[in-house]
Amino acid sequence: MPTITANFAAGPAAMPKAVLKTIHQQLGRDIENGVSMLELGHRTAEFYKVRDEAKKNILDLYGLRASEFSVLFLQGGARLQFGALPANLRHLPKPAYIVSGHWSKIAYQEAQAVSSAEKVWDGEADQFSKLPTQVSVTGNPSYLYLTSNETIHGVQFPKERLATLGENLVIDASSDFLSYGFDWSKCAMLFACAQKNAGIAGVTIAIMRNSFIDQMDAKGLPLYLDYKIHREHDSLYNTTPVFPVYVTKVVTDWMLERFGSLAKVEAFNKKKAETLYTLIDQSGGFYKAHAEKNARSHMNVVFTLPKDLETKFAQEAKQKGFLNIEGHRFLGGFRLSIYNAIEQNQVDAFAEFMASFQRSQGS
Amino acid sequence: MPTITANFAAGPAAMPKAVLKTIHQQLGRDIENGVSMLELGHRTAEFYKVRDEAKKNILDLYGLRASEFSVLFLQGGARLQFGALPANLRHLPKPAYIVSGHWSKIAYQEAQAVSSAEKVWDGEADQFSKLPTQVSVTGNPSYLYLTSNETIHGVQFPKERLATLGENLVIDASSDFLSYGFDWSKCAMLFACAQKNAGIAGVTIAIMRNSFIDQMDAKGLPLYLDYKIHREHDSLYNTTPVFPVYVTKVVTDWMLERFGSLAKVEAFNKKKAETLYTLIDQSGGFYKAHAEKNARSHMNVVFTLPKDLETKFAQEAKQKGFLNIEGHRFLGGFRLSIYNAIEQNQVDAFAEFMASFQRSQGS
User: For a Cys staple, A280 with which of A120, A243, A287, B295, CB 3.0–4.6 Å?
Assistant: First the structure.
């Protein structure tokens, strides 16, 4: 097996080496001298500190106040939120959904199944390559739902639009969590599974405006789905996934140390994305990006090349140590997931490979 | 801080040193040369192997056939099962619940809240110190629910009773999972959070008779609560908690290597429990076990000593490196959780401390 040049997996994704080393070192020390993070109780002062630091890191990075927003650590993935959220608001006017890719489509379908929901925009006719600049909402929906970055189709809302599309925005930010700062004034809730930008699979982070939770009513639902209960218990209603939360703390510690602010994270990611999109745009049509220019994701660069060259491209990439570049099984083609842990030099190396591959085809 | 002699936490609990070392070593190797278990994708051949080996280990230990039983890896803790299970069977006659401690009481309350349930036995009047030898079930309940080991109150059903109490048994075995073999002929489902005997918080293992799942109907529920979906996708409906499942694989590998069979695990645990109960019984009333003799847990030894000596006992125990011996905040007193990872010599050391403490009080 060749050395790994870059693991471009969409999630669970590559983590920063520094984070992995911190976790490895602490585990080594604790095996000898203490209670390891794999054994630590959720009702211990040591874990409260881990949880509170993770919460503080996340609020600080987004510039939010703990008095306005609760940070919850939940299980069940972003997927469980798809059903739990509309179920908690069944007594209010139906929510509005922007369907801009695979994940928002599923979230919309699930909202319809557990209560009812209105679709206010749908990009499927354009193979989910575009995004709306505005949507027409009727009545007074309990929330307006969108997926800020669609991992499979590689479309991402420009951050400026998150404050202009509507009120009570609920954002599934699973694949662009903590990758840029934005104006939260219209945002009621943002949630993200951890395994792309913030840790490992097993914990989902929900940042919820307290006034939004106040409106909820979970009567008749399994209690684990009751956001008020999770807020009341500060994510300790039942056994918190201690180790996944700890990993999120280490990742956000690293972010603060490495970048210091989301503005810097954003610039870092923008440069990586532009490196790839520029190469694609200058390839004379050899490479084609799936997303329209003004909807392109800075996290998942989805592209195609001539169909008959796909296997060769994949094989040569693998030989050069580039892992997990295949597109999602629903879409095909290729996808480079370039989350916060991916370095500019890894992207440069892939861009060089792409250019060289194209030249070798004489095109 | 003194060296740790034993971590008697009730869960998240101590893990075998050999397991911690395996995980630490593999993480170290992978940071240098590969994709670590913290980054591994859930839809990879490597993870399928981990999942399948964990499933096989569990089925093999219990002597079950994969054609009859499905093993599911779920999130949300045992707690989410409390609500999800009755919700999946709302269309059938109401289930029957044995309330024998804190956890079965909560499970019963939740079943009542999401559908309806009948309580067929209640031990609360006896402070949950006893267990029924038989229960009277009316009609044809969709299942008969019990908690095989009540972690807080330290009561555990003798394993022989699990085949005689009724049909379609559903067992919450969170705190005695994989600690003894038993006759599964009447068992429809057994579930357990991993963080006591089988890994870390973040994954719950459900072993479900396929004919039991076949009866379920999850219409209108959030899809994550649909057991049929999880079975259909072989625990890959959404992102599986990869690392927690991997830890469960390493723990069950260790069990097979160290013990080979649940009969040996049972004997190992029985001896530890008897060491402590014998000392308690021979203390002339200085130490008192909470549970009646025929209901005593081999996993959680719950006892009291004269109230005015509690603080001194706790302090001296701590000085000798015994951690987490306090009883649950709902009950007080003391509790030693002696799961599979706790060695006989750790229990012997604590028994010696108990005897010496009593002598030092001149009683």
Answer: A287
Q: Which of A172, A176, A184, A226 is catalytic?
A: A172
Q: What is the ipTM of this complex?
A: 0.97
Which residues in B lie closer than 8 A to residue A78 (C-beta atoms)? Answer: 238
Cα–Cα distance measured from residue B319 to residue B331, given in angstroms and rounded to the nearest whole number = 24
Q: How far apart are CA B157 and CA B144, in angstroms?
A: 14
Q: Are A292 and A130 in contact (CB under 8 A)?
A: yes
**H helix runs in chain B, sequence order:** 17-33, 45-62, 77-88, 102-114, 210-214, 227-232, 242-258, 262-281, 310-319, 344-360
Q: Which residues of B touch A201 (CB under 8 A)?
A: 42, 239-243
The 10s digit of each residue's pLDDT in A204-224 is: 999 999 999 999 999 999 999
In this predicted model, what pLDDT tens digit does every residue of A10-39 receive, in sequence order?
A: 999 999 999 999 999 999 999 988 899 999
CA distance A310 to chain B (A): 20
Cβ neighbours of A114 in B, within 8 Å: 220-222
Q: Which of B24, B193, B195 lies closest to A31 in CB terms?
A: B24
Which regions of chain B are under pLDDT 50? none
pLDDT on residue A46: 97
Annotation marks residue A281 as catalytic: no
Residues 6+ apart with CB under 8 A from A131: A100, A123, A155, A156, A157, A161, A292, A294, A295
- pLDDT, tens digit, 9 for 90 and up, residues A136-187: 998 899 999 999 999 999 999 999 999 999 999 999 999 999 999 999 999 9
8 Å CB contact between A154 and A297? yes
**Chain B: residue nearest A116 by CA?**
B220
**Residue B363's pLDDT is what?**
62
| Interacting residues of A85 by C-beta distance below 8 A, sequence separation 6+ | A111, A143, A170, A189
pLDDT of A119 above 70: yes
Instruction: Determine, for residues B24 and A20 on separate chains, whether the beta-carbon distance falls below 8 Å.
Output: no
